[in-house]
Structures are given as C-alpha cells and as structure tokens.
C-alpha cells in the first residue's frame, strides 16, 4: 500500500525517508521487523534504536516544544509512523512512556510534572511501566485493592500489580491505587507516579507463553513516593486512567495495517510455494484472511480520514480492535497449517522464528487492552445503546 | 498502488441526497408497499418508477450527460443502492441501472449508447441483462445462446433464465455466442413472436426473475460480434460493487430492527439486550456491518477511479457483503425469536433478499475462487 498524504507533507516525508535510510543500518537494520506491542525480543537493541531516534528528534513529534517535542501536526506524526513502518525499523521499545503515559500526562498533568517527566521520556533516559491490573482486578479494574496512604509529604503504597509490561526495565511506574479505603469501586482511586528503584518495590518477571520474560508482577511493601506525584486530583484516578484511554488519534493504525499486510503476503507466498500440499479448503480460508486484511485497510483509512478532518471517529473505530485481533489469530493458525510439521520445531532454549513468535503472541491480542468480551460489551452499550447488565 | 489517505467522508451534497432518498423511500417503499408489490406479477409500481426517473433522476445518476444522464459519480450511485437496499425497494432499478446501463456504457458502441441510454436515464425504459442460462453460470463459458447472421439479420436462439425483470423489460440486452466469440445484442421484446417470457416464482419475492425462450428472435448487434466479454465482465464487476452497497443497506436495516427489539423485549424481568448472550451477538453483527461498509467503500473507490483493481475490489465487496447480509439477517431473526420466524414480520423479507442476492452475480465462494486465482493460489 502506498498512500498519498497530500502535497503539504511531501518535504517532511522525504526528510523522514532520508533519515531512516541513513540511520537504519548495521545492527538496527539486522533487526528489521522485530518486536511488537507485547514482545520483548531484542529489547536492548530496540532501546538503543529508540535513543538513535531520540537523537534525530523523531520522538514526541506532536508534543509541545517546551517539553522536548517538535510541535508538529497530527498528520505529520501519522506520516512519520507510516514511513517508519514501511522501513521495517524495529518496533519501538519505549511505547509505554511515549504512547500511553506521555499523552496521559500531557492531558492531565501539572506543568511541573510535565516539565520533569516528559523530556526524559523523549531522550529515552527514563522508561515507564503501567500498574493497573491486579490479580483480583483484570477486566473489572475498578475492584482494585492496591492502596496508598499519606504519611507526611509522602504516599506509602502497599499491594500488588500484575501484567506490567517490561516492569523490570522501567525506572518509573504510573500506578492506579486506592487512596480512600471507604470509597467503593471507581471512587477513591488516585494515579500515583512511583520510582521503581527503591527497597519497597519488588519486581518478579512472568514468562509468557512464548517463553519471554516480557511482563511482571510488581509488589509494593511500604513503597514511597512524593505527595505531589499524583496525576489529576486525588480520588479522581479513574478519570485520569480512562480520560485518555481509547481516544483514537490514528497514529498506530497504519503501522499495524502494514504489518498485517506483510504477514498475509507472507502467508500467501508460503501457500504458493507449498502448492498442492495445501488443500483447497485451506486455500479458501487463506483468501478469506487476505480479504480481511484488505477490508481492515479501508476501515483504518476511514478512521484516519475522520481524525484528520477533525471529526469524531465513526463506529468502525470501535469495532477495529475486536476484528483485527481475531483476524490476526486466524492468520497465525493458517500460517502454522501451511508450515506443516516442520513449522512445529523450535530452536535451543525455545527459540522461535518470527512466524511462530507472532502467532503465539497474537493470543494476547484478544485479552490485553480490553478483552474481546469487554469490547463486545462496549460496542453493545456505547455504539448500539443496549442496556447495561444489572449489577447483582 | 497509490491512493489517497482520506476516504469515506460524505460531502454535504451527498448527505442531502441520502436524506431526500430516505424521505422518498419511507413514503413509497414502506413495508406495506413492499408487501403489496411483491405479491404482484410485475413486482413494481409503474407510477413510483416514473417518479424515481422523472423527479429524482435516479436511473441516470451515473450516466454521462451526453446520454441523457446527470453525470454524477459512483459514490452517489453507491449511496442510492444502500438506500434502496434498506427499503427493500421493489422496482427494476438494480437490473436496469447496475446491469443493463453499465453493459451499454462499457460496450463501446456510441450509436447504441445514444439510442438506448437516454430512455433508461429518463426512467422510461426498463432494461434487463439476459446473461445466465439454466446452468446458472456467470462466466463466459456458461454462454450457449446462439446468435446467427441470416440474410443480413442477427437471430437469437436458446434459453436465458434467472433474468432480473426479464418479464417486464422494454429492452433486453442478450449475451450470446457467435461464430467469433461472445457478442451483445439488443432485443425489443414488444410483439416479438419468437420470444416467450415466463415469470419465475422466487423465494425472495421482492426481486422478480424471468425465463426467456428465444427461437430466431431478431436482434441488434451492439459493439463487436465476438469480443464483447471483457466489457461485460467489467460491467459485472461494477454491478457486484453496487449490489454489495445494496446488501450493506439491507444488513444495516436488519441490525437496526434487531437492536430496537432487543431494547424493548423483556424476559426474566429485563430487556434481552442487557444479556451478554444477545448483546455480544449484536456487537458481532455491527462488526460485520462495518466491515461490509469498508468493503463497499473500497469498491466504490475503485469504480470512481476506474482502477485496475476493480475486479479485485468487486469480488472482495461481493463476497464480504453477501455473507454479512445473510449472517446479519439470520442473526436478526434469532434475536427476534418466534416473532422473527413469522410471515408477518419484516425481518424475514430481509433474510430472503439476503440469500437471493448472495447467489446473484456469483456466490461468495465463486468470488473467493477468482481472488485465489489472482493471488496465484
């Protein structure tokens, strides 16, 4: 897919391409196509690559200049991400700070908090991890129990978080905790910023089903942070957490689309090479998978068109995650089928090839970021206006 | 392939067109109208048809001005088909506009286009494309009707069937085999003794079909006598995209019916739409409908640009929207429960239209097979 973004960004696009051509070399080029949203593969190389990007001034393109950004337009950011994805550059390691925490702080933080935390994110000097889920609070996040109490000018935090992506490499955590023990559910929660390097914070790596130590449990035992490191109001943490969640800015749509297109082309190519070994019914399902990627492209372009026109995205933006995650898993199953028995062998220390790793990691896509079941509730209630399930 | 990153935002004019259409169809293709017309042999209301042409100019929307049309684009035509699909319009609109007019436009015969298209554009001519035969195939190899040159005249012999509006058409465009290949022929059926037209009884009563028996029927050759197929194939791709738009309209209406019902129907003391079993089904139906909308938009994009990948976009749209329409209408019946299974409820009309249109212009499996071939699978 080659997209025309209009004459206004032609020079910028050339600048991006030239920079990538010059810098995506050596070890970075050797890691083309490596990494993904829940993939810790080649972590150190990817962090080093992020620092290369930072030095080139390519992080935080649409962030304000005063916080180290470049103050560019949303369209320019989208163009950059598109060219980036086309170049095959490694998946950025520091997305937790750049894509999740940073935008939240930009929207809800104080000027002092922004001044302190945003520039180190853009220089890749501080990595961030997210502390939302708990063993007893997954889809039902509002039932979380990790708590914090004020002790003078410090918060004292006790409890446990889980599924924190790359917590063991994070310098800071943004943690949703209960600060009012008497308030129920989503009331009485606060968003605290907690330094990880302290005795009260203990991180235990969890191996995912691909064998990677990619996420972790985080234990807080009298961990401490300064009283003013609250994002948003004390007791309003739910609003802070939800305020920037699910706002579709369109910046990740095209990169994801390009990676799906590459994958499905590889699947079609593998099936061509396998020839008659692939039964007709499997070929038919491969065509269906190919079709679903083509349909996704238009779905993404519809959303992008609306975002760039300054309109609220239509219903297609709300179904995109549910559809894409399911379709991606189907592609993985088909690729495994075409690869046959040889595709079931792994290397030493459970070393996986890209196809195997992509497939196994795709199993998380219908779980993280709101499981498919939660997505269907949201679609039903928010897009179709169906009544909520009564609480017992 | 380069395409613009901005797609799918309707202009104010397009939104206005949609509003005008919806108002017109609410008045003239409400459920009682649909039921009245589907029970007749003709299957349409000649007065409404004339108003569609004279007042709204719908048949000529995408026909160039030099042939009497208004020269709008396929984006607008797609909108029209989405609305006629929503309303289950009983009229020879699809057959005349999406099939017959498109074949004429692409046949490369200037004189024939000048003679025949203005009547279609004005809404005076009901036209039908006679392509399928008892074998039910939509490809070139399925054509067996013969056209022979006898004493300076072309004469047609053989059987066409499943012809949309074939029993009422004022103009038949017949795809026939000649000594040199495939040709396209125009037949004026009025008072033609060698032509027998038999209306067919169909599961979907909202769109009529006929069988046509030709025995030495004189016909006018359109374009070249042996090389008509590529133009016909291109027209069939166009029709597939427009049918997909019609399917999208029907599917989104069936989903609305199901959602509305799930909000008011109570069981176990609460609206059934509050149960996840029902809610999740409806969420999947919306997912289907939005994917169908994307497939249609990609098809309309290819049509508007007369793009090289039109056959691909058309097959994707036809395969996707056919299955979505059938799945969503079946789901809508399920959500309605017993009442959805009755003759009286409108949801069954959408289901039958869905199943019939799924098979029209080639089934989803046939279109996927075409895609497989293009992908080298």
Task: Give a verbal description of the structure.
Chain A is of the alpha+beta class and 392 residues long. In chain A, 45% of the residues lie in helices and 15% in strands. In chain A, a hairpin with a 2-residue loop joins strand 3 and strand 4 (154-165). In chain A, helix 1 (10-23) runs parallel beside helix 4 (74-87), helix 8 runs antiparallel to helix 9 (280-308) and helix 8 (253-274) packs parallel to helix 10 (315-339). With 377 residues, chain B is of the alpha+beta class. Helix content of chain B is 50%, strand content 17%. In chain B, the strands form 2 sheets. In chain B, strands 2, 3, 4, 5, 6, 7 and 8 form a 7-stranded mixed β-sheet that branches. In chain B, strands 9-10 form a two-stranded antiparallel ribbon. Chain B is globular, with a radius of gyration of 21 Å. The model of chain B has no long low-confidence stretch (mean pLDDT 96). Chains A and B meet through strand 1, helix 8, helix 9, helix 10 and helix 12 of A and strand 1, helix 7, strand 10, helix 8 and helix 9 of B. Strand 1 (2-4) of chain A pairs parallel with strand 1 of chain B.
């Amino acid at each position: 897919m080659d997209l025309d973004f209009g004459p206004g960004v032609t020079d910028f696009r050339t600048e991006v391409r030239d920079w990538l051509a010059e810098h995506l070399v050596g070890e970075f080029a050797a890691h083309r196509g490596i990494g993904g949203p829940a993939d810790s593969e080649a972590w150190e190389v990817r962090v080093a690559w992020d620092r290369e990007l930072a030095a080139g001034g390519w992080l935080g393109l649409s962030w304000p200049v005063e916080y180290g950004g470049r103050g560019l337009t949303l369209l320019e950011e989208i163009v950059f991400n598109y060219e980036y994805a086309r170049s095959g550059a490694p998946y950025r390691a520091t997305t937790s700070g750049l894509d999740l925490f940073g935008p939240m702080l930009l929207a809800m933080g104080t000027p002092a908090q922004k001044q302190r935390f945003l520039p180190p994110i853009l220089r890749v000097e501080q990595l961030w991890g997210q502390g939302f889920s708990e063993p007893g609070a997954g889809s039902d996040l509002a039932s979380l129990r990790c708590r914090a109490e004020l002790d003078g000018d410090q918060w004292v935090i006790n409890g446990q978080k889980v599924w924190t992506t790359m917590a063991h490499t994070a310098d800071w955590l943004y943690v949703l905790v209960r600060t009012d023990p008497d308030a129920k559910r989503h009331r009485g929660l606060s968003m605290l910023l907690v330094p990880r390097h302290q005795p009260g914070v203990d991180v235990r790596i969890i191996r995912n089903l691909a064998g990677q130590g990619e996420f972790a449990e985080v234990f807080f035992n009298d961990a401490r942070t300064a009283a003013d490191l609250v994002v948003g109001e004390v007791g309003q943490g739910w609003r802070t957490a939800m305020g920037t969640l699910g706002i579709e800015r369109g910046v990740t749509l095209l990169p994801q689309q390009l990676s799906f297109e590459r994958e499905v082309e590889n699947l079609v190519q593998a099936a061509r090479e396998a020839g008659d070994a692939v039964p007709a019914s499997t070929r038919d399902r491969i065509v269906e998978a190919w079709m679903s990627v083509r349909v996704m492209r238009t779905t993404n372009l519809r959303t992008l068109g609306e975002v760039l026109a300054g309109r609220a995205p239509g219903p297609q933006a709300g179904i995109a995650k549910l559809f894409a995650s399911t379709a991606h898993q189907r592609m993985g199953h088909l690729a495994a089928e075409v690869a046959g028995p040889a595709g079931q062998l792994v290397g030493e220390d459970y070393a996986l090839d890209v196809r195997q790793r992509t497939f196994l990691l795709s199993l998380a896509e219908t779980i993280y970021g709101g499981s498919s079941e939660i997505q269907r509730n949201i679609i039903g209630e928010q897009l179709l206006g169906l009544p909520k399930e009564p609480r017992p | 392939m380069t395409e613009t990153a901005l797609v799918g935002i309707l202009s104010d004019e397009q939104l206005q067109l949609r509003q005008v259409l919806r108002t017109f169809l609410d008045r003239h293709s409400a459920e009682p109208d649909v039921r009245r017309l589907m029970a007749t042999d003709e299957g349409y209301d000649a007065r409404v048809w004339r108003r569609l042409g004279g007042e709204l100019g719908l048949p000529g929307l995408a026909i160039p001005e030099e042939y009497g049309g208004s020269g709008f684009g396929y984006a607008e035509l797609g909108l029209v088909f989405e609305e006629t699909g929503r309303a289950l319009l009983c009229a020879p609109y699809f057959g005349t506009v999406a099939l017959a007019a498109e074949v004429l436009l692409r046949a490369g015969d200037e004189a024939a286009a000048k003679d025949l298209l203005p009547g279609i554009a004005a809404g005076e001519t009901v036209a039908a494309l006679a392509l399928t035969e008892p074998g039910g195939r939509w490809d070139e190899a399925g054509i067996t009707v013969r056209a022979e040159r006898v004493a300076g005249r072309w004469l047609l012999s053989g059987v066409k069937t499943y012809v949309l509006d074939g029993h009422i058409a004022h103009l038949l465009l017949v795809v026939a085999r000649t000594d040199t290949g495939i040709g396209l022929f125009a037949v004026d059926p009025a008072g033609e003794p060698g032509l027998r037209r038999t209306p067919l009884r169909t599961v979907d009563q909202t769109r009529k079909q006929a069988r046509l028996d030709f025995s030495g029927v004189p016909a006018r050759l359109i374009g070249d006598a042996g090389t008509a197929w590529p133009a016909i194939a291109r027209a069939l791709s166009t029709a597939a995209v427009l049918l997909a738009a019609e399917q999208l309209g029907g599917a989104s209406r069936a989903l609305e019916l199901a959602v509305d019902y799930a909000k008011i129907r109570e069981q176990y003391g609460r609206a059934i739409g509050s149960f996840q079993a029902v809610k999740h089904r409806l969420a999947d139906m919306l997912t289907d409908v939005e994917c169908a909308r994307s497939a249609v938009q990609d098809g309309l994009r290819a049509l508007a640009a007369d793009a090289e990948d039109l056959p691909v976009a058309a097959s994707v749209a036809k395969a996707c929207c056919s299955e979505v329409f059938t799945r969503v209408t079946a789901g809508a019946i399920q959500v309605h429960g017993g009442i959805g299974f009755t003759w009286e409820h409108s949801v069954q009309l959408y289901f039958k239209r869905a199943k019939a249109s799924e098979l029209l212009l080639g089934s989803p499996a046939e279109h996927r097979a075409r895609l497989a071939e293009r992908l080298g699978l």
